[in-house]
Amino acid sequence: MVNKPQSSRRAAGVPPVAPAGGARRRRSRGRPRAGHSENVREALLEAARELFLRYGFRAVSSRQVAAAAGANVAMIRYYFGGKEGLYREMLESILAPLRSRIDAMVAREVEVDLGGLIAGVTRTWAANPWMVGLVLREVLPPDGPLRPMFLKEVAGRLAPLVESLVRDEIERGRLRSDLDPELIVLSMVSLAAFPFLAYQLTSRLFGVRLDEAFAEQLAGHIREVLYHGLAPRAGHTEERRQSR
Predict the structure, then answer these.
(1) Residue at 213 is within a domain
(2) What CATH number does residue 110 fall under?
(3) Which pLDDT score, from 0 to 100, does residue 20 have?
(4) 14 and 123 housed in the same domain
(5) Is 44 exposed, middle or buried (0-12, 13-18, 19+ CB in 10 A)?
């Protein structure tokens, strides 16, 4: 059976296959040498980001990721447990700082700072534009292959924690007590994510940019909306207490 030329495969939206024969030097089996371990791991993550974004999660095989990274396919199972584990690690690598910050606020190790949290979210979107394409293609469609994992790892784990922080801010009198905490979280997520998810439109209509300066500008705007648009009105807190 004759393989399709690489140019034909690209035109058809199919990931290129690894070169046959000795075009690539075969790596020895077993665990990687200590000096190359982290390099191999990062190369696999980088190759996965590029291929998943270009061709889609379903269309890319573990072998194709390994070939693009110049690694043995066994290294994907060794480091990540498989292709889904590779995607999970892609998410974890960018969400870990946010998760740590949220956990520290919930544990009262640091002051609750929803504005700072929002800034972390906008910076994450701006610094990782590959996330936009992956979420649009693999998460948002009803049959998106990565939707269950995304809901579990991101929405299922982080949203309840952020909601608990919002409730704390309401109890402290910094946010209005007549508003639904879940809807406040939804507003925060929408304001921080939509400009990047709709980047093809928002970049032309509103000058959205994928850089840190714009991420900080957007975060500052959302912070003002959150703490002033949702702040208790004068006398409102006392009226609510008397009506209970």
Answers:
(1) yes
(2) 1.10.357.10
(3) 37
(4) no
(5) buried
